[in-house]
Fold:
Amino acid sequence: MIRLRNLHKSYAMGASKLHVLKGIDLEVGRGELVSVMGASGSGKSTLMNILGLLDRFDEGEYRLDGEDMSELSETRAAQLRSRHIGFVFQSFHLIPFKNAVENVALPLFYQGVPRRERNRRAAEILDKVGLADRAVHLPRELSGGQQQRVAIARSLVTSPKMLLADEPTGALDSGTSYEIMKVLQRVQGDGVSVIIITHEHDIAGMTDRIIHLVDGRVDWDRSNLRREPAGHEESEVAAAAAGS
Ligand SMILES: Nc1ncnc2c1ncn2[C@@H]1O[C@H](COP(=O)(O)OP(=O)(O)OP(=O)(O)O)[C@@H](O)[C@H]1O
Ligand SMILES: [Mg+2]
Structure:
């Protein structure tokens, strides 16, 4: 799905340059759930923005589904972003005067999908994130966790191949964060590659693989045995019981 080779990125800082990504090598397969950790300023969001084709890189290779991203036209980048990539951020970026189902349907509006079909698909995805009963609520009538689930539903309504989430639980308490992670695990189960930036070990612990960045480089990259964070062991037991 994603293949990076020796990827470099610098930002111009007046006359000098700030070298942020210093040779990133990374592969992420279809349907993987991966977390990216690292100190503030280590380059996590920069990497995410490049993966999401929101920003350009200077050197190295980025292949998305085999396609070379180095000499991409703005039109093709916009097309790939709207068709194949979903974004979720720490702040939910919902439109305040539109209700949940309208917010979720918005990307389909931009794709020219007819209204009935838009609303049908939006309602279906809202149901998937457990918000069928909140469809006509405005963002301000929803809790933070519910708003984030609306944002996730919106990012999924176009059936992307990859979901990029930059600190999706950064503004949420631990119980709500746990619920969001459960939703993202379900998304992964549908074959979407999910990449999450997080500072929280409990959140990273719920992914299959953790990538640690230090100063613009991959410090380590290991697979992780998914575990439920402290306080949620009961549900783990329940899940195991349900599975057996
Ligand atoms: N648009 C920009 N122009 C100039 N410098 C930038 C820009 N975006 C990021 N930087 C710098 O690049 C470095 C890496 O930033 P980045 O946002 O990728 O870090 P991060 O790992 O996401 O940090 P945090 O955990 O605080 O979100 C920082 O030193 C930052 O100041
Ligand atoms: Mg960041």
